[in-house]
Amino acid sequence: MLRDLVGELCFSVLGGAPGEALVLDFGKRQPRALRLANRQLSFAQRTFEGTAGILVDCGWALDGPNGRVVTHLESTLKEGPSPLVVLEGDKVAKVSLPAPGLDPLLVFRSGHTLRIWAHRVDPQGREDNWAVWSERGTLTVGPGGRLSGPPEQKPGDDGDLVTVWRARWRAAGRAVPEEE
User: Fold this and answer.
1) pLDDT recorded at residue 179
2) Which helix (H) or strand (E) is 168 found in, with range?
3) Which residues have CB under 8 Å from 20's CB, separation 6+?
4) 70: Cβ–Cβ under 8 A, 6 or more apart, which residues?
5) Which listed residue, of 20, 36, 48, 174, carries a Cα 20 to 30 Å from 30's Cα?
6) Residue 167 pLDDT more than 80?
7) CA diameter of the chain
8) Residue 66: partners with Cβ closer than 8 Å, 6 or more residues away
9) Contact at 8 Å (CB) between 60 and 114?
10) How many CA atoms lie within 13 A of 113 on its CB side?
11) pTM for the complete prediction?
12) What is the CA radius of gyration of the chain?
């Protein structure tokens, strides 16, 4: 599902301040089920969400063509626009999930790269690291690399990320987390 973001335009970036989740909306704008009340957001951000997107509730960093722009440890709420707004209006050029940590990279056409690292590793933990959604469903990476995907996608389907990563972990001799 992460590959569903390739070629999609990011039209909204929400959050990203220390202790806040970061949400990027992509694809077609669709009305939110419930309009957001936060007046600091634009009308479009309060009213619409993307048909695809990613929610990041773990460590992340945004790199630009000339170096690091901002990280999850720095405030994006300083005077002036958030440094993350450079992603709005930009398209995803490529994505990758380097082994073994399920830490995605989203490379944008402008040369910016969003690096995400799933730092929650306690398999008994309840907080997820990140999730990506598209019209095909949602894939979530929880603590300890616990994966959960859409029920309509069967393990073994072409492009099924859960199956791909389990096979890679087995090949590397790693313990394979069970799907919930």
Assistant:
1) 41
2) helix 161-171
3) none
4) 16, 61, 62, 76, 83, 84
5) 20
6) no
7) 50
8) none
9) yes
10) 15
11) 0.78
12) 16
Distance CA 126, CA 138 (A): 17
The answer to whether 54 and 24 have CB atoms below 8 angstroms apart is: yes
**Alpha carbons 133 and 91: distance in angstroms, whole number:** 16
Which amino acid appears at position 89 of this protein?
G
What are 180's two structure tokens?
Answer: 């919930």
Chain segment 16-55, per-residue pLDDT in tens: 888 888 999 999 999 888 888 888 788 888 888 899 999 9
Peptide bond into 143 cis (omega under 30): no
* Residue in the structure block whose two tokens are 């492009």: 159
Residue type, 105: L
Domain boundaries, the chain: 2-135
User: Which of 70, 72, 76, 55 has the alpha carbon at shortest distance from 19?
Assistant: 72
Token output for 97: 């999930």
